[in-house]
Amino acid sequence: QVQLVESGGGLVQAGGSLRLSCAASGNIFGIDAMRWYRQAPGKQRELVAMLTSGGSTNYADSVKGRFTISRDNAKSTVYLQMNGLKPEDTAVYYCNVVGRVPVGLYNYWGQGTQVTVSS
Known about the structure:
The chain is mostly beta strands and about 120 residues long. It contains no helices and eleven strands. The strands form two sheets. Strands 2, 4, 5, 6, 9, 10 and 11 form a seven-stranded mixed beta sheet that branches. The protein has a four-stranded antiparallel beta sheet with strand order 1-3-8-7, with no helix packed on it. The protein is elongated. The model has no long low-confidence stretch (mean pLDDT about 95).
């Protein structure tokens, strides 16, 4: 069973930066996309950034130009570099990996990491 472990969250002042990491405990094959979501208190979980197996990226309008998603295949890790953080970026951030193998589809989630941005 593959596990995703996030790290890198914390408390930062507005304008600061954080880099989130999401490491897979085992090898993952057949990845279609790797994503970062976030969920703020009282709000629905929203997609923040996505990186497809082909290398395409997509970002929520609210983070474009500030966040960057990337991947290190050798380390089975996906990153989210967050610059110019704002108080409204405060949320629990989750990584998500979806893909397919001969026996079917898979959809893995991490446990989440808290990001708090103070004004």
